[in-house]
Amino acid sequence: MNPSSPDRRYPATRRALLRATAAAAAVPLAGCVTAGGGDDGAPAAEGVKSADNPLGVPDATPLEVVIFKGGYGDDYAVHAEKLYQERHPGATVDHKGIQKVGEALQPRFVADTPPDVVDNTGAGRLDLATLVAAGKLTDLSELLDAPALDGGGTKVRDTLLPGVVDEGAFDGAPRALNFTYTVWGLWYSRPLFARNGWTFPTTWDAMLTLCAEIKKSGTAPWTYQGKYPEYINDPLLAMAAKAGGIDLVKAVDNLEPNAWKQPALLDAATAIAELAGRGYLLPGSEALSHTESQAAWCQGRAAIIPCGSWLEAEQKGVAPDGFDMVMAPVPSLGAGDRMPVSGLQAAGSESFIVPARAKNPRGGLEFLRVLFSKPAARRFAELNSTLPTVTGATDGLTLSSGLGSVKAAVDAAAAHTFAYRFRTWYAPLAKAVDDATGELATRRVTPAQWADRIQKAADGVAADSAVTKYER
Amino acid sequence: MTSVRSGRNRFLAGAILPALALYAVFVLSPYAQAFYLALTDWTGVSGEVGFVGLDNFRRLADDPLFRAALRNNGLMLLVVPAVTIVLGLLLAALVSFGGRGGAAGPSAVRGGELYKVAYFLPQVLSLPIVAVLWQFVYGPTDGLLNGVLRAVGLDGLARSWLGDPAVALWAVMAVLVWSSVGFYMLLFGAAMESIPREVLEAAVLDGAGRLAVLRRVVVPLLWDNVQVAFVYLGVLALDGFAVVQIMTVGPGGPDGATEVMGLGLYRNAFTYGRFGYAAAMGVALFFLTLAVAVVALRAGRRERVEYA
Amino acid sequence: MTTIIERPVDAPPAPPTRRRRRSGTWGPHVFLVAWAAIVTVPLLWAVTNSLKTDREILTSPWTLPEQPRFDNWSRAWDQASIGRYVGNSAIVVGAALLLTMVLGSTVAYALARYPFRGNRIVYYTFVSGLLFPVFLALVPLFFVVEQLGLLGTYPGLVLVYTAYALPFTVFFLHAFFRSLPTVLAEAAFLDGCSHWGVLVRVMLPLARPGLISIAIFNFLGLWNQYLLPLVLNPDPDRYVLAQGLAALSVSQGYRSDWSGLFAGLTIAMLPVLAAYVLFQRQIRTGLTAGAIR
Question: Which of A454, C80, C247, C262 holds its CA 20 to 30 A away from the CA of B152?
């Protein structure tokens, strides 16, 4: 039978179908059973370690690189692969730029024939926690302790922005390394605001006042990427974190009882509900994909859109000339905020992993050493207007409008950055949060109902003995 | 004689065994294994398999998304086959008998061949392609549907079809109906044209109206086809995966409004790595499919009208 | 087997009542035209959009393109790899179709014409496959294919496609072979033909109409596969068309290349639609045959 369209096959008379039904019922009873997944694999190749080859990359061994080809494209990786080949002339590099990393690689992880290095990013990425729990990822400590390329003896670990190593650590062992530094905020076109005499607000009250003014001008104040409700989560959770401080974030991540009912979270939820309630969201946003809503924003149909710092790169070719987008941190909810308004939700993304069962894991580590070097990182920043996690990678570059605003925001935030971890740790909970926030932004649930249903989902995860728990 | 016999057996072995082996490896064994996997907690990436008994099924009963999927597939099961079959019968009757009627009984409509070609078009497109197309048709701002509604002054009806939980599932069902009607219309049409004309003429002479003839004479004669159509459309309604996965918010949203079992299975297996749990969903889906087939074929049983 | 027979369009005009003439002549057409519009307008809209610029799609969605932009098509074909996906589909579907026809017709023939112990069991084992939801097999199938080292390979897809196309093929051809006359085969046996010889030289030529129907049918089914390749064919270089197009709607989305996306959609639709319009009679006959006897 053709599974995706069973109606396309049309055999039968009723009688024949009846007999087939009976036969179908009988088959499983007679079936055989197998267990899956062998755990044997050949030992990986290893070369001689030297000052020039600190990770012991074997000679003339092919390297397979799989890159998530999303908003950043994959030119930067191709560039790094060239640098890799310059260092290891005998090696051929097999490069794949793909969109649905999980779909493509899940089978290969199961089969223990994974590629040598993977950029595990994008909507269809693999669940890191599952991979770690199954022992499928190489410990990256050796890479972090190796000397950085062209780093004058500095260890790789010390060339990375603060927090980057911890982010990819599971129970103390680094398993993933994020290549880009992403911050989340609210985006607007600077010239548009200047023309209208609008200033971007730092408090929520001022935001509501501004929205009223924008609406009067005939533009929708906000739009959002409704087809993927996680986007509208970000301003909500960021405002809550700034109001409640890092303790709020930890309570949420550690699945503490009633964590989602903390006042700051309720206030932030109320704020988002208010946007919808006052008609400040572009009608139809709830069904727009990221590309559609962002295009609408670039066409001036809405003034503000929440997004991560990849937005400028993603809108290349869509944003009209002179659009000059900039990002601002989310406003503060009130005077009682525990964090300054410059506080930023920040996290690494473009999460690189080296599969444990790769044919050439040493090559994989070495590729990361090349990629996380200053020249390669700088190249990435130039191509994509995005901050890499390598310190000083943008020094001396002329920054675009968006990247400039992002860098300024990162500098202003200094140590006041935060990130929620529940999304990586408990994917089903993240889905529950997304669904609830989607409903909140369309006013189909109240803030209190929103908190209730997420809390229920979180309690469910906490009570589920089958889920591996993490603490921070 | 013996050599003939052994030649016959060799022939049978050569003709049947290769196909049977292929079928056993790729079709029968996976189906059988699914029943075993459903009783484990396998994550798919490791070789370790823990036996958990019926735990996965207990979880299924408490899983709000799975319950939403059951509800949605259930509604689809009620709506999609019924609407498709009624539309198919109606269109088939119009094409076959919609022409100028006379003493000789109803006749085919002018240009019927053209209609048949047009109606069947969606059927040759695969559902993913249909889903990509309809994703744009349903677009809230630049979509075809809202554009048409606004163009004819029905602005009030324009809405974000896939963003509103009250209509999203109906939008999905409409796509399934849209893509299936042509086939069933042809099927019923072919069956109608094989109905002896005397039967219809007699009914017309008895003074029955067109609808009455359709309901009382034609449909009973087609009952076998209608039942089989129910089975196949039922299977389609229990699936819906491609359309939902490509087209809807989330996907499966908003807030589970278009969640279907296939999507939950796919997500649990290939995103969350819960292969055991996903297999349990497959088992549940299997029994539902079986139940639908049995109910459609047994409960709706009628004496078959023989005219041959 | 039933073919669709056209009724004479004009029955001798008898004096109809006024009411009946109205409803009989115009009523059906209103309804029929309405459904024809519902079916064709979205398709035409997609084709029109594939020839517009992005700007035209967004700003003037209702007009025809100022000038048709066939470069959208070439962009979709080359850059968005639609051309490659079409090639992949052709390879996989072609091979699977051939294999399905060879295996399916021999099995169906053997089961239909040779009574032996267990014949019914084998037959219903095959036919039972018609009623299993593929979702049930999905997870284990994935691991079966993987353990055979066939994941993401053409042979893997071809074998799986064939295995899943067998139930209906066997079912259909079984009925067909049973309906064929036995006289010719018996004569051939008396002439000293072997069992294979009878199958190849006598029975298959006799079964030609049925073989053609089921081949067309399998072609459509296999060409439109989505779930199986989605799970079993993860390498983007080997994506088949339906899979590639679904991926395209995400990746072109990243570049907000609407016209390219519609062009990809159109390229994916047109060959099948064209093939259908050319062979529509055979296709419809093939699809509805077997349902009515």
Answer: C262
